Amino acid sequence: MIKSLTNKRILLGVSGSISAYKAPDIVRRLQDLGAEVRVILTQGGARFITELSLQATSKNKVHDNLWDKEAELSMGHIELAKWADAILIAPASANTIANLSAGKACDLLTSVVLASNCPILIAPAMNQQMYASTGVQENITTLVKRHIQIIDPDHGEQACGDIGEGRLAESNVIAQQVGVLFNTTKLTGKKILITLGATIEAIDPVRYLSNHSSGKMGMALADACIEAGGEVTLVYGNITTK
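RE: above sequence
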């Protein structure tokens, strides 16, 4: 594994989405790439994940209050903004995206974002209809124009039972996207096509050629290429590994 975040300081914002339970795994994935991680937990995020679990995984105090008297003795929100090499908001709720788009400083997370000049990434997570709504899409477009990077959500079954786009991207994908920010290897700007798994090629309407590939090697290659800055496209068949 390429330690693409060695000595990098990543500030993770966790907002109010049911996907917040995945935040400890995101922390661990960032640490696996070499990062030091601090966490800002919004009031909405605290309804889905505890401060203690994030403190245990990040090994740092969790920040959750803009009006913390002790922290603000040293202008805590400014200190956090200056500390971070990159800010990642995952999951990013519709409300947080709207506040960022409007340029609001209504809590610690939005205040830190406004005070920062480092790269910012957000990973939206919400109901598929909410994500597809005009309001959310316009807000995302506004953020992109401000050079905030969007980590696209996955398509699939959601907690509410709906099926569509809006699931939080996988933790390893999120961490890799953060790593790409700091990667200067020779694969940056390169496009890589990888085939993996038991692909099938028809000989005729009855017969086909296939193989016993699990997809494990192809997935490892894809991860390595992404970590090295490449843009990867996968062509895959049946995959029997995770």
